[in-house]
Amino acid sequence: MESIISTWQLSFLFGVFTWIVASSMFNVTHKVRSFVQPWVSRRVISGTPTILQIQKYQHGFWDAFFSGLSCVVSVPFYTGFLPLLFWSGHGKLARQMTLLMAFCDYTGNCIKDVVSAPRPKSPPVRILTATKDEKENALEYGLPSSHTLNTICLSGYLLHYIFSCHENINASYQVAAFTFACLFVGLIGLGRIYLGMHSLIDIFGGLVLGLMILAFWLQVHEYVDNFVILGKNVTSFWIALSFLSLFAYPTPQHPTPSFEFHTAFTGVTLGIVTGVQQTYHQFHHENVPRVFTHNLGLPAFAGRTLIGIPTILLVKFCSKALAKWILPITASALGIPVRSSGYVTALTGPLGVKKSNEVKQSGGYLQKMFFNRQESFDVDTGIRLLQYAGLAWSVVDLVPSLFSQFDL
């Protein structure tokens, strides 16, 4: 059985590698962009009057309401929410939502940077960025809306999970829950337009792509989960897949933070998969205590939170510091020239930043590695990957071990 699974894994990885090489050689990203970008850009421009019409209702209350709503469905929120979901005893839901969000993040950001479509022009559109996270989001391209995409996928999967666990739930409650989810998605989409962050085509693209991803995920999620918890060679396979996904990412027309977001969540999934695969029968099986039961009351869950959050933040800091020390030394020993965009002071500087921007705007990532004579590689990518992998591993391995020591 193991040899069959190994053959499947190698075939899958080879297929991904082949696609990366072929798409780089034939410059697929540039060709798709030249065809799609003008069409999307015209829709963004033609949608400006609609945005201005909605922004006529500008008010301090709506500014605060939609800004707060955007924070609730942002990546930092999910990054804080998902650990609590693991520690509450709902391991399967937490695993699936983490993997689904990583898939949404990768797919959505790939499309953003392939199309490289502009956001609404300001002025005349008013763009409101109330938080640091929103300011970073504004630096990305527009199509599709990540907030809309993530919201429809994660709320849709949450409904599926609840209905599956409670098959006898009253039909009226099901209708109410579905209606609330639709209203929530609608408010997110409206809020992104009101804040000037997206045009109608971006919201529509996020909605359609979200429904497609959700439909696909509902077909494969059981297979994916069984592979993560019971499969063979899971860790080695996921490391190879994570590495390939970094080079599979398309190069945008101009540098954006999207690749950094993708790298961070790739690290998160790597840490989660590795940790769960090793400790499933200890901490993450279906019979673990769940919050609000007599085995895991609210005080015990509060204790888990007070221990867990500082621990994972400490691990994140230590992982970053360790990676900043090890990766440059390893690269030097292997004769690989590296630079840093900001993490390693000794490898930064005006010249290094200039080279970094020049490299990011040429060819595909894999093409740059194998087909171009690249002068150096950005070590920050590896540091970011290991940093978030360490954080995620601590969520599902180190912290649950501490819980058992403290009888939580």
Properties at a glance:
408 residues, mainly alpha, two-stranded parallel ribbon, 16 helices, 1% strand, globular
Topology:
Blueprint: H1 2-25, H2 28-46, H3 48-55, H4 60-72, H5 75-87, H6 91-115, H7 132-137, H8 146-165, H9 171-194, H10 200-230, H11 234-248, H12 258-284, H13 298-334, E1 338-339, H14 350-360, H15 365-370, E2 377-378, H16 379-405
Parallel strand pairs: 1-2
What does it look like?
The protein is an all-alpha fold. It has one domain (2-405). Helix content is 75%, strand content 1%. The chain contains 16 helices and 2 strands. The chain has helices spanning 2-25, 28-46, 48-55, 60-72, 75-87, 91-115, 132-137, 146-165, 171-194, 200-230, 234-248, 258-284, 298-334, 350-360, 365-370, 379-405; strands spanning 338-339, 377-378. The chain has a two-stranded parallel sheet with strand order 1-2. Helix 4 (60-72) packs across helix 9. It starts with a helix and ends with a helix. Mean pLDDT is 85; it is low at 351-373. Keywords: Endoplasmic reticulum, Hydrolase, Membrane, Oxidoreductase, Peroxidase, Transmembrane, Transmembrane helix. Its EC number is 3.1.3.4. Pfam families: PAP2.
Question: Quick recap of the structure?
Answer:
The chain has 408 residues and is mainly α.
